[in-house]
Amino acid sequence: FHILGIESSCDDTAAAVLRVDRSKAQILSNVVYGQSELHARFGGVVPEIAARAHAEKIDLCIEDALSQSGLALEDLDGIAVTAGPGLIGGVLAGVMCAKGLSAATGLPLIGVNHLAGHALTPRLTDDVTYPYLLLLVSGGHCQILIVRGDEDFTRLGGTIDDSPGEAFDKTAKLLGMSQPGGPAVEAEARNGDQRAIALPRPLLDRPGCDMSFSGLKTAVLRQRDAAVARDGGLKRSVRADLCGAFQLAVRDILVEKTRRALDIYLAERPKTPTLAVAGGVAANGMLRAGLEKLARQQGMAFVAPPLALCTDNAAMIAYAGAQRLIAGAQDGLDLAARPRWPLDQKAPAMLGAGK
Ligand code: ATP
Ligand code: FE
Question: Residue 281 Cα, ligand 2 centroid: separation in angstroms?
Answer without folding.
Answer: 10
